[in-house]
Amino acid sequence: MFPSSSRTSLLSPWSSMEQSDSEALDISTKVQLHGVLWKRPFGRPSAKWSRRFFIIKDSFLLYYAESEKRNFETNSYFNIHPKGVVPLGGCVVAPSPNAGMPFAIVVNLEDFTGAIVLAADSEDEQVQWMEMLQDSGKVTWRNAQLGEAMIESLEAQGLQLAKEKQEYLDKLMEETEELSHQRAQREELQRLNLVLEEEKLKFEEVVMELKAEQEHIKHVCGSDLDGTARSLRGVEREKEELSRLTTALQNSIQELSQEKQRTLELLGVKEQEEKPTETAEETRDSEDGGDGGDGEDGGDGGDGGDGGDGGDGGDGGDGGDGGDGEDGGDGGDEEDGGDGEDGGDGGDGGDGGDGEDGGDGGDGGDGEDGGDVELLKDLQHIEEEMKVLLKEKQQAEEKLKDNEQMAKVLQEEREFYWSQAQTLQESLSQLSVDKNQTEAELRAEMESRLELEQRLKEAEEALQELEKGLSSLERSAESEEQMRGNVTQLRRFFEECICAAEIEAKLPSIMKNAVYLHKAAARRIKSCRIQRRASRRHWCKSTRAGPPQATLTSVNINPRCALVAVKHSKSFAVTGADERSMEELRETARRLTSDSSFRESVYKIMARKDAAGKKEN
């Protein structure tokens, strides 16, 4: 196979000849060029020129007599018996201005001793024949062998390149699809970024509102707490004053009680002193009276009086009328000191002189009754003051209870405000933590997205370079090395996708093993204990059954004991089925890399893994 330029140069003269001669030759007789040229004899020097009909067929120059031109144009095929045949393989063609003809052509061959000299009729024909002779000289046996080998090599390279091109085109299609999905994912990430930015702004607004509310609550609660504290201090002061007042009232009540006790004791002493006096007066009256009955009446009058007035009545009874003494006694029944005047009046009933004496006795009785009245008034005044003090004490206690209840309410209100402030502070702290966590997640998401975009950009660049290398016809060692690097990079990218897919596939079993690991360990321990007990029981039975040698033999060959010794628990974290299906899992992961949704999930997992790794760092 020749290059396109060579084919064009080979066919263009023939096309020009067809256009010039207006002939359509048969494919079996098609020649590269034909025409009449001047020829000088070959092999010997001569100045004679003769016209001959020349034909260039492949790599041979055939010449005939000039008359053969008409036969060739008529029959459209060349004669196989030319006058001469000149092989043109490896010839050197050059113009010769000194050959005796204006448009001479010199053809030099390695296998010929002399030169072949031809001449054309015009300059255009000279150039045309020189080009065709030069092109025909390239067709040699060596070139044919090299061309065949080159053709085979080029065909093999073409097949290999076609295969590689198809593979690269398949990969290119996959990567194009992948890039489209990645672009969609990037757009989705941008949308999520906008959503996260909006959420961040909302969080900031909420935090600002909470801060403003906290400041307002601090201001309001601060004023309320200050007022509550002042109220509590006022209540405490009132409580202390009421406590002091209660103590003073208690002391006053105790003093009044003591004074009342002393007054009562003094009254009891006076009564005891008056009783002997009354007894003596009654005795005197009974001795002085003429009428025993009247004396008794006078005694009655003395009893009715207040300690001595009756005695005076008895004296009036001496006038002759004991009844008046009774009246005097009746007048003395009053506990008041002024009633002694009635005793005087009784005395007046009997005898005027005696009545005066009775009046005098009544005056003596008024002095004693005045002291008793004062004591009674003091006692009554003390009791009234005690009642007033008890009432004030009760009011103070009630007010103290009210103050304690108010202090309790104020304390509860203070605790409520404090708890509200603490709750708001905790809410603000939690919101700050959530905000920081959201910002950290956003930063990690942005970093992972930037890293993913960088990797996608590198993959796109690798694909573009690979596409350029595949589309270019010229190959070099540098381009081959660059293509290998691009393929290696894409392979690494797909291997990372496969690893992420394997991790994603193993996540359920990992979580299951993490949940049931302690149960499996407990079952393993229990099975080991059961095996140990079974071995011990079997050993004891074998020991009781025979001698030590027989026991040893039985232990060594007993299948039950061997089974107990070999038997183990199968509660492991990774089962044999998981190990057997690992290759199938890898194959499935490789097969699923072409799935768009699966790749999207893989990229999400990789992004989460990168974000988690950065958080741990």
Automatic annotation (TrEMBL):
InterPro entries (alphabetical): PH-like_dom_sf, PH_domain
Acidic residues compositional bias, start-end: 288-300, 321-345, 351-372
Classification via SUPFAM superfamilies: PH domain-like
Biased composition (Gly residues): 301-320
Renumbered residue ranges of the record's region Disordered: 264-372
UniProt keyword terms in alphabetical order: Coiled coil
Keyword Coiled coil: yes
Domain PH: 30-138
CDD domains according to UniProt: PH_PLEKHD1
Pfam families: PH
Coiled coil regions, renumbered to chain: 379-483
Stretches with biased composition (Basic and acidic residues): 264-287
Domain of life: Eukaryota
Protein's UniProt name: Pleckstrin-like proteiny domain-containing family D member 1
